[in-house]
Please model this.
Amino acid sequence: MTSATLLGRPGNLTKEQELKLQEMWTATFKVFGLPGFVDGTNGDAASITGSETAEQAGTVSPEKKKKKRVNLFSRKRHDDAGTEDTESDSAMDGNDKYGQTKEFHKVLESQSPEAIRTAFWSMVKHDDPDGLLLRFLRARKWNVQNALIMLISTMHWRMQEMHVDDDIVRRGEGGALEDSASSNAPTKKEGQDFLAQMRLGKSFLHGTDKEGRPITFVRVKLHKQGEQSEASLERFTVYTIETARLLLSSNVDTAAIVFDMTDFSMANMDYGPVKFMIKVFEANYPESLGVVLVHKSPWIFQGVWKLIRGWLDPVVAGKVHFTKNVEELAEFVERSQIIKELGGDDPWTYQFVEPIAGENKLLLDGVTRQRLLDERAAVVKDYETTTQQWIHDPSSMDALQQRRSELTKRLRTGYWELDPYLRARTLYDRTGVIREGGQTQYNEYANSATGSNATHNSTLNGSLPPKYQADDLD
Model:
């Protein structure tokens, strides 16, 4: 695993990148409508809402402007004489593949600044807030305006389209099990379709690659077009990505995907889910993929790949590698981490452990949840205030950055205390992969059916907690 922090991440920014990050926070705070926030021009964020913000973002035509306002994205440059030159970027540079400018407008016109702010901090979870903004900046080549449009449209997608946090993550596998027994036929089918994919192991998380990135395995031969509804396929995809997010850390902020193409036939090819997966990674989970390995693809896939490659952003396409055998796969993943199913040395086999009665009881504890949310809100407010000071007080930048780092750690720790009150337990909680405090252990519990008992390098956290002992998982 690489120990060096990659460029463009928290703790390893050039001076220019740090300035871009500060610009991004300034623009984000304006959208949040933080009371009294001044960005050094003359724009008070408390007055910036709805169409005003859209106009300031440069996405309203000049003829529609009723009066001159401060441009949210204006950048002042000082020449040697101390004069200022202000320039404004164009919205999305004409490269709006997924219509995110429209979604950006929709959010600003329909949501209050405080609602947007709340949604943002909900999306942060255990992530480094700087790290989250930097993902969007890197994805948009450090163009602050484009990065903000992408960020806000992603929040719209999470809140209004997919209901990621209030439905997919909150209800999880236990909710699908309840739905599968519903008297409502459509609801019952969606629950059954979701669980069918979990039980098959159509995709699953296991082990890490040589860079320490968590691996998602996708067994393509298990997918048959039409067997599950489009909605359940999309829900399963987002659920898997969100679960993989829990395995990321400040040191490892991207994941690996292995598409196992063993026994692939055209009966397994389904372009709808492929397009959805491409869209969410490019538009809603930017800079989350470290590497994509297409393993043992047959010759008939060549034509399919030419088509798919045309849909991919060149940066994403550059992360795709083809491996023909276990030796080539071992260039990216240690053989000890490659499961025997793919010719590796790891005896682990996938087995779905059904949801356990009462495992989500803390979701019903609204009193404790609210107390923890209030505590987190206080830390968030402190983080925002300190970040404002960090932007505007260069003389104290080092001390303020140290304070921001301390608050980031508190946000991360606080999230994991709050986590069981917000998120339904997953297979990976039940089997001890995700542990208390967000530590991870890729560990196969004793399994009489497979006889396997493999342990992988990760953040060790002692033996499995009593609630995860093998006797309880039969």
